[in-house]
Specification:
single chain, 143 residues, alpha/beta, Rossmann fold, 6-stranded parallel sheet, 6 strands, 20% strand, globular
């Protein structure tokens, strides 16, 4: 397995997509190889081609992952997270980030290695949040 990184995200409003683009920018800034996909364009059989993953999904409903596309995708790769370095990110409109804490615990229980706590931002990422996304990408590339 190479040291390639995949950024895979789901976004309805564009907020999490903007975060994904800036995570990708940080990875590229570090000189690492990255492929970015919306979840609907990622072939789950390719997951083994990546040693590092940046996964992005906003909070939905009662602070859960998006249930029609992202959750089934995540469930399909969950047993392949072991020994992978992982960064999580997403936007939210309400709540306190419970969906991210739950997601982090699930990644850990699946054997994934989180490089840091998940990055969350309220609604559209502001300049500070965009900088945090870039930094997250740089940290994942160096992890």
């Amino acid at each position: 397995m190479s040291d390639k990184i995949a950024v895979i995200y789901w976004s309805a409003t564009g907020n999490t997509e903007l975060m994904a683009q800036n995570v990708e920018k940080g990875i590229k800034n570090s000189g690492a190889e990255v492929d970015t996909f919306s979840v609907s364009n990622f072939n789950t059989s390719d997951i083994d081609n990546y040693s590092k993953l940046a996964l992005g999904c906003p909070a939905m409903g009662a602070e859960v992952l998006e249930e029609s596309e992202f959750q089934p995708f995540y469930d399909s790769i969950r047993d392949k997270l072991s020994n992978k370095k992982i960064a999580l990110f997403g936007s939210y409109d309400w709540g306190d980030g419970e969906w991210m804490r739950t997601w982090q615990e699930d990644v850990k229980s699946a054997g994934g290695s989180l490089i840091k706590d998940g990055l969350i931002t309220n609604l559209t990422p502001d300049d500070n949040a965009i900088n945090e996304c870039i930094k997250l990408g740089e940290e994942l590339a160096k992890a």
